[in-house]
Design a protein that fits this description.
Blueprint lengths: L5 E6 L2 E6 L10 H13 L6 E6 L19 H18 L4 E5 L3 E2 L1 H7 L3 E5 L3 E3 L13 H9 L1 H10 L2 E3 H7 L4 E3 L4 H13 L3 H13 L5 H16 L2 H11 L10
Helix pairs in contact: 1-2, 4-5, 8-9
Length: about 260
């Protein structure tokens, strides 16, 4: 696919999807959403981990309000464009990282939270800006945010629309880690390479098990663990991992 509003590169099994409208702080238009959707669907055939980041000084400032927003059918746009994009990220069988290089606002903040792991630059921030223009958090924000930070903090963030610094987001449990702005790119790239060299199929099962735990009771979750662990035990990577452990060497995983 030829991309206009994003770039997609692959190196050492790391697929990097970069939101590429820096003059608009990477605000999302219809074209960008379609391109991100397709890129995440294609990513498993291109590498073993996928990173979403932004060009320029911002990660993503949310919906482009100059993209016909005054006459936009918000329900249809969410249903037909945002939901497929978010689902493509959620359904991606390989690990997903949001490398939040700068401000992440509105739908841009929630786009980051959909990833398996969020790594933020120390000068990044998150803001649920929706109420400023008379809207509720969308792009999955009403689902992900309260599960990550609790109802009280999610409610306050949505009602007051305060900026949440990267450090505060880390303290709240909204993101995984913060890296110094000066070394941010090197840090997330090293993290991505680590996952790209890991047991890829196992990572997919980890994602399945952890997400299911919110809906399963203990009996159901234990049964799921057993089934998925059985699947892991049949992989080449499990055999390699055990062999490497016995031989006191680093495992060379192939992702199979």
């Amino acid at each position: 696919m030829d991309y206009t509003d994003i770039t997609v590169t692959t190196a050492a099994d790391v697929v990097t999807i970069t939101l590429n409208r820096p003059d608009k702080m990477n605000a999302m238009n219809s074209g960008m959403r379609a391109e991100v959707t397709q890129a995440f669907r294609d990513a498993p055939d291109m590498g073993r981990v996928v990173v979403l980041t932004g060009a320029g000084r911002a990660f993503c400032s949310g919906q482009d309000l100059n993209d016909g927003s005054a006459t936009l059918d918000l329900e249809a746009t969410l249903r037909d464009e945002y939901v497929p994009m978010l689902q493509a990220i959620i359904d991606c069988p390989i690990p997903t990282i949001a490398a939040v290089n700068g401000p992440a606002a509105g739908a841009g903040a929630n786009l980051a939270l959909v990833a398996d792991v969020v790594i933020a630059s120390s000068d990044a921030y998150f803001v649920q800006a929706f109420a400023r223009i008379g809207l509720i958090p969308d792009a999955g924000g009403t689902w992900f945010l309260p599960r990550q930070v609790g109802l009280a903090r999610a409610m306050g963030a949505a009602l007051f629309t305060d900026q949440i610094s990267a450090a505060q987001a880390l303290d709240w449990g909204m993101i995984y880690e913060v890296a110094d702005a000066a070394t941010f790119a090197d840090h997330w790239q090293a993290r991505a390479r680590h996952l790209a060299q890991g047991p890829t199929a196992t990572y997919g099962h980890i994602k399945t098990a952890l997400r299911a735990s919110f809906d399963n009771d203990l009996t159901q979750q234990l049964a799921l663990e057993a089934r998925l662990q059985g699947a892991c035990g049949r992989t080449d990577d499990f055999r390699e991992g055990v062999t490497a452990f016995m031989q006191k060497r680093k495992a060379q995983f192939t992702g199979r």
